[in-house]
Design brief:
The chain contains four helices and nine strands, in the order H-H-H-E-E-E-E-E-E-E-E-H-E. The protein has one domain (23-213). By secondary structure, the protein is α+β, with helices and mostly antiparallel strands. The strands form two sheets. Strands 4-5-9-1-2-7-8 form a seven-stranded antiparallel sheet. Strands 3-6 form a two-stranded antiparallel sheet. The protein is globular, with a radius of gyration of 25 Å.
Length: 215
């Protein structure tokens, strides 16, 4: 009588090591890509926010003699009376009709801010991620109008007003976008800039003092 022999063949240590190394190698390629995708999506969302904000400024300007809110008196629906106030949100609040919803005032990467749901409820600086360029003018397309609040450099005055000149060192903290930031210009365009590019932008501002109100 013949007996069938069943041969059980397991993985050798070398084969197992090769499989583990392959899995680790593949994960090393895939995981960073998966991580970068939401970061890129959030950065694009931030750029889109600033584009909508820039458009809202221009719509407001069309109805107010080509002036942005901070150049229009409070009595005429502007916020000139809040230029020296830490209530930076007032400048955006004045454009509620143009902005429609306050949620676009918060960058998706900004964990310290809370998105507002509508302009009927109270708005505050906690609902705003973007600075206000108080010297922006529609006739000067290169001037800073808005941008990520985590801008650094210059001199901080009164706890909310960051002031630069054309030779100031400027940059970004890592609290929102890593080593880069987004800025909106008076012509409605939006740029993603490094610290070096930001400094070049300051050099063409044609101003002795550049004032940014930080929320």
């Amino acid at each position: 009588m013949k007996t069938k022999l069943h041969c059980q063949h397991g993985l050798s240590l070398i084969e197992l090591a090769v499989i583990v190394a392959t899995v680790v190698l593949v994960a090393g390629f895939i995981l960073p890509v998966i991580y970068r995708r939401p970061c890129r999506s959030q950065r694009i969302a931030c750029v889109n926010n600033l584009k909508q904000i820039g458009l809202s400024y221009r719509l407001y300007s069309n109805d107010h003699n080509d002036q942005f809110p901070f150049a229009v008196s409070n009595q005429d629906g502007g916020t000139r009376g809040f230029v020296d106030s830490p209530q930076v949100f007032r400048h955006y609040e004045s454009m509620s009709n143009e902005l429609n919803i306050p949620r676009i005032l918060v960058c998706p990467h900004d964990a310290q801010k809370v998105r507002g749901t509508n302009f009927l409820g109270p708005l505050s600086n906690t609902n705003v991620s973007y600075f206000v360029g108080l010297d922006a003018n529609e006739t000067k397309p290169e001037r800073l109008l808005s941008g990520d609040r985590n801008i650094t450099g210059g001199v901080l005055s009164k706890g909310f007003l960051r002031m630069f000149n054309t030779n100031s060192t400027a940059g970004w903290t890592t609290s929102i976008h890593t080593n880069t930031g987004n800025i909106g210009l008076a012509d409605g365009s939006v740029q993603q800039v490094t610290a070096q590019t930001l400094q070049r932008q300051l050099q063409i501002q044609s101003l002795d003092i550049i004032r940014l109100a930080i929320p």
